[in-house]
Amino acid sequence: MKPIFLNSLLAMFLLVSNVNYGQRAKNEAAGKQPNVIIILMDDMGYGDPECYNGGPYHTPQINKLAAEGMRFTNFYAAQATCTASRCGLLTGCYPNRLGISGAFMPWENRALNPEEETIASMLKKVGYHTGMVGKWHLGGKAPYWPIHYGFDEFLGLPYSNDMWPVGYNGKPMTDSTKPQFKYPPLPLLEGDSPIKYIQTLEDQGELTGIYTKRACKFIKENKNRPFFLYLAPSMVHVPIYASPAFLGKSGKGLFADVMMEVDWSIGEIMRTLKERGIDQNTLVVFTSDNGPWLTFGNHAGNTAGLREGKGTSWDGGQKEPCIMHWTGKIPSGTVCNNLSSTIDLLPTIAKLAGAPLPKNKIDGVDIQSLLFQQPDANPREEFVYYYGRNNLEGVRKGYWKLVLPHKGQTYKTYMPGKDGFPGGYADMNVPEALYDLAHDPGETHDVQNAHPEIVKELEEIAEKYRKSLGDDLTKTTGSEVREPAYINKTK
Q: Is residue 437 within 8 Å of 447, Cβ to Cβ?
């Protein structure tokens, strides 16, 4: 009996050992494929988080994210408006390379071409479970919604939260002469199916909570396998509103209430990661799609002194707050001053996950060397500012920015709006100018006469991009652009 007993113990030991070894192997394999969470705020300005000199409200959770991670000071959205910016983030391409521009209306005929690789479809190929929560805005109708672009699941809005048949006062629009009248009802989608409609400001105020609950649920359900979560909150895009738990609680106005709730949401995401023991294997990226919509005054954010805002190729429109956090991997409390962009996320994540890059050309570069503070790292030296359908309006190299002649808009001519109502815009002719962003981040002093050699160098870079991506301002057709999808099969 004794030998049999010992044999049984040995068998049990080997079984347990094999199970533990298998689990260790699984964990080690998972360690080679980090979870990835991208949080893309809507219309949050460079100066909105407290750790970027925001206030008078407090954002302790975002502050903590920065204190435990890396805060970027020269991070740019792909373009200064919703659809184009989101295209750039998900594909690693300047959006005009893919025929994407502007902010799509619900009836827009174009959509992101499903043949383009996204971060989600790329990661699915190497075993990731993928989910999206929040604002999509890359196609107004099914099947041009997230679950057809590599996402296993989706809960959110198909486009911006102001694209609804409701007036600035929060009441249903009955005046057929107003632009809001023609918007369809605003659906909250699960996959391709509406599950409710956003009809009131109170409904808008529930979105942050709905998104946060779903994001945390996604993390909990996928903690034992590599996952990619793309969280794209609707706030702080107008119309802003907060849930009862935060409404009026800041004492500093509605925008401050909304920022407090956004900050709470970030805290919930990070708490869930830590409670599930996966914070050390999760890269979290926090940034925004473009700068603040300044015409809305006290319902809009701020740029921390950068010039202009959303809808312009000045730095107030494209330079964004960005924090990257990865416990034990990205050094805590660090600051990165190097030039980088949302288009760099795809190739960086591909490298970290061991995923192949898209077969078609992209514009992003791998910025791991910045995250891990490799000596003398500088993976991105150039960045170009496109706006409109395909207007090349600026070029940056290092801290030099050449603004090219174009027609733009300015918020400075009119007083901003108040309490949810917009002010006005004015058109302006923007002349060529050279700015030294190291000493003049507000783009106020044209120094081209003092640095003609820099102007020449940047003009040559501009010409290179014109040949590749095209430029409507010089009537140049790009040789390396691709077609979007056309929903009704006609251009």
A: no
Residue 7, pLDDT > 80, answer: no
Q: How confident is the model at residue 32 (pLDDT cuts 50, 70, 90)?
A: confident
* The pTM of the whole model exceeds 0.90: yes
CA distance 27 to 24: 5
Q: What is the DSSP letter of 148?
A: G
Residues 6 or more apart from 366 whose CB is under 8 A from it? Answer: 344, 347, 348, 350, 351, 379
| Alpha-carbon distance values, 179 to 81, 170, 182, 187, 198 (Å) | 19, 14, 6, 18, 18
CATH of domain 34-380: 3.40.720.10
**How many angstroms separate the CA atoms of 6 and 134, rounded?**
58
Residues 6 or more apart whose CB falls under 8 angstroms from that of 213 comprise none
Backbone phi, psi, residue 138, to 5°: -120, 10
* E strand segments, 15-91: 35-41, 70-76
Domain map (residue ranges) of the chain: 34-380, 385-486
CB of 369 within 8 A of CB of 396? no
Active-site residues, by number, are 82, 137
Q: 385-486: which CATH number, 3.50.50.60, 3.30.1120.10, 3.40.50.150, 3.40.1130.10?
A: 3.30.1120.10
Neighbouring-strand partners of residue 323: 71, 286
